[in-house]
Amino acid sequence: MAVPRHHMAKGKQLRRRSHLALKPKKLVKCSHCNREILPHIVCKNCGYYKGREVINVLAKELKKKEKKAGK
Fold first, then answer.
1. Is there a contact between 42 and 30 (Cβ–Cβ < 8 Å)?
2. Which family would the database say this protein is a member of (predicted)?
3. Contact in structure between 29 and 43 (CB atoms under 8 Å)
4. What does the alpha-carbon distance between residue 38 and residue 49 come to, in Å, rounded to a whole number?
5. What sign results for the dihedral spanned by CA atoms 41, 42, 43, 44?
6. 30 and 48 Cβ atoms separated by less than 8 Å
7. Do 55 and 42 form a contact (C-beta atoms < 8 A)?
8. How many helices (H) and strands (E) in the chain?
9. What does the alpha-carbon distance between residue 43 and residue 33 come to, in Å, rounded to a whole number?
10. Bridge partner list, 53
11. What b/e readout covers 17-38, taking b as 16+ CB neighbours within 10 angstroms?
């Protein structure tokens, strides 16, 4: 069974844990629709990334509706 070799002072323990706090997410504006998005990720609203269309959002929605209507 593991046993701690030395007593750790509360101050040392808290200083070690000071970096474990959650940091707020940094958001940037989409270059196409100006919505707030996470950096380096395709915009879910318009499907653009770095100024060019990567995902055709309208076609994706139509496909979803057709699939739902088929059920």
1. no
2. Belongs to the bacterial ribosomal protein bL32 family.
3. no
4. 11
5. negative
6. yes
7. yes
8. 2, 4
9. 9
10. 48
11. eeeeeeeeeeeeebebeeeebe
Kindly list the distances between the CA atom of residue 24 and the CA atoms of 27, 29, 56, in Å, as whole numbers in the listed order.
Answer: 9, 16, 30
Would you say the pTM of this structure is higher than 0.70?
A: no
Residues written for the chain: 71
Residue type, 3: V
Retrieve residue 71's tokens: 């059920």
Would you give per-residue pLDDT tens digits along the chain (71 residues)?
A: 678 788 889 999 999 999 999 999 999 999 999 999 999 999 999 999 998 999 998 898 999 999 999 87
